[in-house]
Amino acid sequence: MKEKFIFLLFTAVFFLNTQFNLFHLIPHEKFEYSRLEESETLVIGKLIDSQHGSIFDDGGFTGTFYYDKISGRSVGGKKSYNNYLNNVVSPKFYYDPYKSQIGGQAILYSIFEKIFGLDNTINIFIFRMFNSLALSIILTFFLSWTERKFGMAAASVSFILILLNYWIFLYGKSTWWCSWVYFMPFVYGLSFFEKYGLAEHRKYILRFSFLFFVKFWFTGFEFITVFLICSAIPYIYYTYENKISFYFQFIKRHFIITAIPLFLCVAFQLFQFKLLTGSFKAGLNHLAEAYLRRSSGDYFYEKEFAYLNTFKNYHLDIIIRYMGNSFINEDLTHVKIPFAVLIAAGMICSVLLYKKNTEKRLVGATWFSAIAPLSWFILFEEHAHIHKHIDFFIWYCPFLILIILLISLTLTSFFLKQ
């Protein structure tokens, strides 16, 4: 009973932090911005478009709903947001669909609105609350696994350290980003392998295929390499063997897990293009163009930052920037504590645990997981260059979550011996 209360408390604190920034652990200006950033206006636009017609108007895509011909995307999106909150019904001048994602989350939101017919301010609050609560519950499930594996002390220290890392929660309530989907297979996988091992490999394939479908439906191919590697960490942690048969089975099973939901979601997206343009080919061309654009390095720094144009050829500017920002609210610490400090602490703790012959497999899985964020920073540098307001989040999928666990294990092992 005591443990259930503690985990309920963990969930409540995570939720209050994500939804309301109740403890001021998220920088105020960032939290205010995250309430409505440009990506979320695409969801708002979709909701308004569905209210004006059917859910599959304009292909069912998210997008910017324009009331006039003079506003740009940012201004038009904010006008739509204000009109949505005030329940203003105005004629549609133009709808600019965002075609790089299914927008499945917004389709579900639209269905909810059609069924219940609530006030728009209540609707958006419920949608944000759903995402905040989902993230909070999933993080608490990770702590529950931590408690079973390493004890309540390690889980409690991990809870405190996770709470201080505001990038995990910054867009946790966002109706667009739906941060919880990136942790879902990773956290579920830890409990699955703890219970079944590989004895139920068919069950593993079926359940994980469903979880992958949920991810693709809610956030499309956003952070795709991060998600795929993150989801595979439990498999590696629990079943790794340095045998050819292991690599073969790993590739085979995860290909099936990825391919089925990927095919279904791509097929649905092409169906959306058919509704929008009358052509499946337009969808194929758009997907190919979007991939090439996201992985392109064709951007240039100007003026005093022009010297970075040389470094960007080696991805150094991206990596250095994403290691240099603070992971803790600087208003609380009054000093910048960069991600590099957290990573360095993880290195020290890894060495200490390894020397003690403690959780060598966890140490290995942790540093293997570093491939997840690095894969995005390197392969999709255009996205990382532009989206500095969100891409710090991927450090935690699950690399820095596991670093936090290593730090917690080191601290608890030290103090429990005192």
Chain-wise SSE layout:
Elements (H helix, E strand, L loop, with lengths): L1 H19 L7 H8 L2 H15 L9 E5 L6 H13 L8 E5 L5 H13 L3 H31 L1 H13 L15 H17 L4 H19 L4 H16 L4 H34 L2 H15 L13 H4 L4 H9 L5 H4 L5 H17 L4 H9 L2 H9 L1 H6 L12 H18 L2
Antiparallel strand pairs: 1-2
Helix pairs in contact: 1-6, 3-4, 3-5, 6-7, 6-8, 7-20, 8-9, 8-10, 9-11, 10-11, 10-17, 10-18, 11-12, 16-20, 17-20
Q: Could you describe the 3D structure shown?
A:
This protein has 418 residues and is mainly alpha-helical. It is 69% helix and 2% strand. The protein has helices at residues 2-20, 28-35, 38-52, 73-85, 104-116, 120-150, 152-164, 180-196, 201-219, 224-239, 244-277, 280-294, 308-311, 316-324, 330-333, 339-355, 360-368, 371-379, 381-386, 399-416, and strands spanning 62-66, 94-98. A two-stranded antiparallel sheet has the order 1-2. The longest helix has 34 residues, at 244-277. The model has no long low-confidence stretch (mean pLDDT 91).
